[in-house]
What does this fold into?
Amino acid sequence: MLELRLVQGSLLKKVIESLKDLVNDANFDCSSTGFSLQAMDSSHVALMSLLLRSDGFEHYRCDHGNFPMGMKLENLSKILKCAGNDDIITIKADGPGNDTVTFMFESPSQEKIADYEMKLMDIDSEHLGIPEAEFHAIVRMPSSEFARICKDLSSIGDTVVISVTKEGIKFSTKGDIGTANVVCRQNTTVDKPEDATIIEMQQPVSLTFALRYMNSFTKATPLSNTVTISLSSDLPVVVEYKIAEMGYIRFYLAPKIEE
Amino acid sequence: VNKQSQITSFFSPG
It folds into this structure.
């Protein structure tokens, strides 16, 4: 028996919207830690890792140890679009061997209750171990600013060079029509803490990434006012959006490497 | 020329 009641159902809607363009189908894992997912895009260039901790749910029951539920994200997105933004979402499944999952949507005043049953699928997914890394630079900035920069640069070029120095974090691209550079300096003198740009640098770092993926990651912007970008030479970048009081969604993107 | 690397060359199954 699995029963997860999420009062802020819109969080789940936003999470799936941020993943569905990159991930076709994935196993959601339910364990005592929480509701989680790890999946790669079909080219194995990006890895997505989601955790919604069990204590963030109003009710969290998961009796079967680690219980993977294979879902096609496009179908899950269709179903979650039927939930109102203020609805409470309950996820129910009988356990291993059962091939359906039920989503129940309750309006805040309880005047409308809907349930949608979705078929589960068997998915062979490879779980990757993500080693603890010492990052050369960790930058926290407003998520809307990061989204704006990725969108702006993709009208000029296909790749972005992200460099962190004492001066700040620089995003550069070039394309047929010209070049673009955007520098964000550390800025902690802001009225609201979420507007700050905070740069922790152990050593300067510069890496090249495909902008198409970065732009996809920014679909998670509605989940958090801030984004954290962690960089180390010749390692995947980690773009993390915290999910209020519940967990996170992390996007890992393999760099482009000079041959 | 920059070549796109894959996540699987950094993280291994486990």
Remarks:
- The mean pLDDT of chain A is 95.
